[in-house]
Design goal:
This protein is an alpha+beta fold and 704 residues long. 35% of the residues lie in helices and 20% in strands. Strands 13, 14, 15, 16, 17, 18 and 19 form a seven-stranded antiparallel beta sheet that branches. It has a six-stranded mixed beta sheet with strand order 2-12-11-3-9-10. The chain has a four-stranded antiparallel beta sheet with strand order 5-4-7-8. Strand 22, helix 25 and strand 23 form a beta-alpha-beta unit. The longest helix has 24 residues. It is globular.
């Protein structure tokens, strides 16, 4: 090992660290940090280095085992079968080379292959004894996994009793259909990036009742018996189907001739595409082009030797079977040239580099701008202006620069963050991984703060949108949040400012006066404190810090002790609240009459009957007449009701719209009155006590 260059040793150690971290993120938390393509690239690099320098291959190398998904939340169970990964290919030519290699090493002249969809889901092994589901175990590290039996039993496509009293193990993939994913994701405070992550998170719910509310499904694709009575994979698939398992019908069989493939499928009573070896490239191309039309996500295809005897002859490595190959779809990618890099200044002063690239079409949209996050990200790419880069859409949504594929010919070196703010020329300071403008009076920061404060999810001051605020700022009418409430709006008419007539200024003035009546929780959110959005505000105020006085005296330790508020968030809240500019803003808002305590009720309109007085309401789901749904809560508060963020036995009513989730189920279990949108509209239109909804059957959404 002494003869190995230190840079090689350091790179191997770096790859170890990265891959182990990515494995933990993917298999334990269900949230991928990098794309599959990037992970596979790093993995292949480590394999190459270990093959070149065998002394660097350690027993705990990521190449020696499958990534672990072990969690302390569930018991650990040893697998009785090998649960391995698959070797990968990224082109049809690699697949054809694999087939040639298999045929060359085969002991038969009638070798055949099966091509299946690679479901983008969560791998689970089902263990049956005498036909009864005994346990369900996650893949884990291939040898030990987590027992998730109670949760898997809630999946309707998983048979609890087989049609025959057989003892076997079955591998399969738990997944969530695209349509269900889209519907459920809209109801979540923190949406998931893709169906796979939501499926993985659901299987790991502590309560199986939570899992039962999500319509998961499962395709099974391999069976294992102590004395397997089958000669090929097609027979196994047919038998699994006969036992009651859900088997993916989109399979292909390939033999020397198409006629032979058709015969094999017919004998197995399976439908699918039958072809000769020459048809494989065509089938891969066809499946790749039509994957978007499927009702579920697939991230590739899996080619397997059909004959069980030949599988045993070829054997396994510690990582994968030698008789199977996964063809992986690459994420949509394209090439572009970085024309320039500039920076944007956010309302907190955070500086974000932006790459301006040649207009490039990718996945149905034209990309011109890509976020580069921070200096560390730029450095990792060694990115310079003029470079040709490979770009992708991560999660099929977010544009990203993946790599530099050709350096510029102008001699430009890696881009470096400016030392001063491009807007106010103040010094930039680095805090952690990010860079910030040090000037709290920076015009970009002030405009951002104004825009955030007035936006719909905060104060919702009608008439003060982004463009209007920018005009008012640039003309020196409104510079700080406080100016909104002391400005003489008639001055816009007197000064003849274009676009501001009497009707518009009167409307803005009225909206400003109404904003002062906002509840304390909305005031807190509107302050724009980092990590202190509506969810965190609800947690803090519900924990007893329900006034500005209590919040200003709170310590980091007290706030971080609240379930759901971590130490980083607690520190940001305390530090931000005690900045001099924030203290000044708070005092000024209080002097304008803003609510500084949850105990202070909004001034009621004497013409509105207080039909919800003394009641606590929670709102969940989506609505036809209240967009955003905060509008529904405004109607409740206007009529004397109190807003709560979660359902408990003390909650009076839950207003449930379409795609209502766990809050609805909890309300039903606790006997809390559930009110539909239609019923609510009748209540606020004619304050007559309505019959409570007693069954989720009357409500649209998750339980349709």
């Amino acid at each position: 090992m002494n003869s190995i260059d230190n840079s090689v040793i350091e790179r191997v150690q770096e790859l170890h660290t990265l891959l182990l971290r990515y494995q933990h993120s993917y298999y334990v938390t269900g949230k991928a940090e990098v794309s599959d393509l990037e992970y596979d690239r790093l993995f292949d690099e480590l394999v190459s280095l270990e093959n070149k320098y065998p002394d660097l291959k350690s027993p705990d190398s990521p190449t020696q085992r499958v990534g672990s998904d072990l969690s302390s939340d569930f018991p650990e169970v040893e697998h009785t079968i090998p649960v391995l990964s698959l070797d990968k290919a990224y082109s049809a030519q690699e697949v054809l080379s694999f087939i040639d290699k298999c045929i060359k090493n085969s002991s038969t002249n009638s070798l055949s292959f099966v091509l299946e969809e690679k479901i983008d889901g969560f791998s689970v092994v089902l263990y049956y004894k005498d036909g009864i589901l005994e346990r369900a175990v996650t893949r884990g590290n291939g040898f030990v996994g987590n027992d998730v039996t109670a949760n898997v039993k809630t999946i309707h496509s998983v048979p609890l009793r087989l049609s025959k009293p057989e003892t076997l193990a079955v591998r399969g993939e738990v997944f969530l259909p695209k349509e269900d994913f889209q519907r459920i994701n809209l109801t979540l405070d923190e949406p998931y990036a893709n169906p796979r992550n939501l499926a993985a998170g659901t299987i790991r719910r502590i309560k199986s009742s939570d899992t039962a509310r999500v319509p998961l499904s499962m395709f099974c694709y391999e069976g294992f018996w102590e004395n397997a009575p089958f000669s090929d994979h097609l027979e196994i698939l047919r038998h699994l189907k006969d036992l009651g398992f859900k088997v993916d019908k989109n399979i292909s069989c390939f033999c020397k001739t198409r006629e032979e493939a058709e015969r094999r499928l017919k004998e197995a009573s399976l439908e699918g595409f039958a072809g000769s070896f020459e048809d494989i490239s065509l089938d891969i191309k066809q499946r790749t082009s039509t994957r978007s039309s499927l009702s579920y996500e697939i991230d590739g295809l899996v080619l397997k030797i059909n004959e069980i005897g030949q599988r045993e002859l070829m054997g396994w490595t510690e990582h994968h079977p030698k008789w199977a190959m996964a063809y992986k779809f690459e994420a949509p990618q394209a090439q572009a040239v970085v024309e320039s890099i500039d920076v944007q200044v956010g309302r907190t002063g955070r500086i974000t580099p932006m790459a301006r690239i040649t207009a490039t079409e990718l996945s149905g949209s034209v990309i011109r701008n890509i976020t580069l996050h921070n200096q560390d990200y730029v450095d990792s790419l060694e990115l310079a202006v003029g470079d040709t880069v490979e770009i992708s859409k991560r999660g099929d949504v977010i544009p990203a620069v993946e790599s530099v594929i050709e350096k510029n010919s102008k001699g430009n070196t890696t881009w470096v963050m400016p030392s001063v703010c491009p807007v106010c020329s103040s010094a930039l300071v680095k805090k952690g991984a990010h860079t910030f403008c040090s000037n709290p009076s920076c015009p970009a920061r002030e405009k951002g703060a104004l825009d955030f404060f007035c936006a719909k999810k905060q104060m919702d001051i009608e008439g003060l949108g982004t463009k209007t605020l920018e005009v008012l700022y640039d003309k020196n009418y409104i510079r700080r949040i406080q100016d909104i409430f002391i400005f003489d709006w008639d001055a816009l008419v007197r000064d003849g400012v274009e676009g501001f007539g009497i009707k518009k200024t009167d409307s803005i003035s009225k909206a400003v006066r109404e904003a002062v009546k906002a509840p304390f929780t909305r005031v807190l959110v509107s302050l724009g404190i980092p990590e202190f959005g509506k969810k965190a505000v609800d947690l803090v105020t519900s924990a007893g810090f329900d006034s500005m006085e209590k919040l200003l005296s709170a310590t980091e330790e007290q706030l971080s002790a609240i379930d759901g508020i971590g130490p980083v968030t607690a520190r940001l809240i305390v530090e931000s609240l005690h900045e001099q500019s924030m203290l000044t803003l708070i005092r000024d808002l209080e002097s304008f009459g803003f609510n500084m305590s949850s105990d202070v009720k909004e001034e009621s309109d004497p013409s509105v009957e207080q039909i919800f007085a003394g009641q606590s309401w929670c709102v969940t789901g989506t609505f036809e007449h209240f967009k955003p749904r905060d509008k529904a809560m405004e109607e409740i508060v206007k009529r004397g009701g109190t807003e709560v963020s979660s359902v408990s036995s003390k909650t009076t009513c839950l207003l449930a719209g379409a795609s209502a989730g766990s809050k609805l189920q909890k309300a039903v279990s606790l006997g809390v009155r559930v009110v539909s949108e239609e019923e609510f509209l009748r209540m606020i239109d004619s304050p007559v006590e309505e019959k409570a909804v007693s069954s989720t059957d009357e409500l649209p959404g998750l339980f349709d």
